[in-house]
Design a protein that fits this description.
Helices cover 17% and strands 31% of the residues. With 429 residues, the chain is an alpha+beta fold.
Length: 429
Amino acid sequence: MKTLLLSALATVLCLTAGAQDNTRGYYKDIFMDSGIMLNSRTDLPVTDLLGLTMEAFVSTKHASSPPQHFTRTDTLRQRELTVGSPMDENGILLYPDGAPRFRMVYMNGGKAANHSRSLGEDGRKSLRAFVAAGGSYVGSCAGAFIASKGSRAPDGKLSYTDIYMGLWPGNVTGTKLEKSYTAVDIVPGSPLTEYFDFDNRMHIDSVRHNGGCFAYMESAPAGTEILATFSTKGRQLERDIDGLPAIWAWKGSPAMGRVLLCGSHPEGAYDAENLALMAAMVRYALAGNGEPALKAVLQPGEPRPMDDRSRPGFAPVGDRQYHHFAIDVPKGVRTMTISLKGFVNKDDFDLHLFASRNGFAYREDATWGHVGANVDKSLEIKDPKPGKYYISVFCATTVTSTMGKYGVEYSGRTDVLNGVPYTIQVNFE
């Protein structure tokens, strides 16, 4: 039954919003945080619906009160993934140059303050860096609390501000509604309407809600978009939340990723309306990935070594990552040769070389390309027309990933996680 529903919804979503973008320059689409004191979710139905790739960290299931049954492995594994380890010094979320390795992080519900404390300042810093560098973020319930600047009590007092991440630099307020359901209205003109058109319904019944929040708009940064509001008219609730922001989004700059927060829980449901709502949220978040950037404008005859992790513009390339360059070609050049060379004892990785005159040289768009095993490659372009040319280096070598007790586990070419060094050079004749 679930398979049939997913198939039917996928058809509707493709017809109304177009096909999902391909992952280009990222390792995978989504990293799901089911970590310490969060819901220990191992699946995200929307990934099957949209054909997205995902990995996750899943901690030991927590109890609502002590003892909470965490092990030292929970803490160590979470820290290794979010902060780094000798095998992966930059952590799972970031490439060696600090670029986002996944297109999006999804953070589950659970105990917000406790999970944020368990991340530590280094873990929170990694997530901030991920969004600042162009990775998007979706958080529901606890994931929304943690992403805010802090929570606001009815008396105006802010709490937990020091340990929340400020990915959306506004404040939230708790709804005081637990173990219940609310209806949600998509607001007129909401960007979600570009991705959500299931039977033309703008009112979604029965979205699970358990201690979530709403955006306190008086503290919201400029550019915050209210995507949907709570619809609870006629219900006798401890706190009136009718018409208040249930789903909202913010993108601080073109280079940053989009942060999309939800006070409720549509993420685990398979019913048509919840699933389509979650799909719209994820698609809008992914559409807000930061714009790619050039590593450098190359100078003819000057080799550029890419082997210094301390300088993003000279860092080695990560698995399934593109490094983009450009070069200005003057009149009178008869031959342009682009050369890619490996470092000693680091040349058994598979790097690909591409070039284009029409924007960033992704494989599908490139006019010239050299693919195959190992690092050393070259492209020879005869009688190039004057103008700007774009060059890219793509790392085809990647790890083998499997699902273990704590989520993703890597094996195989794990040495790629700290990057592949190379030298690129362009010569004119």
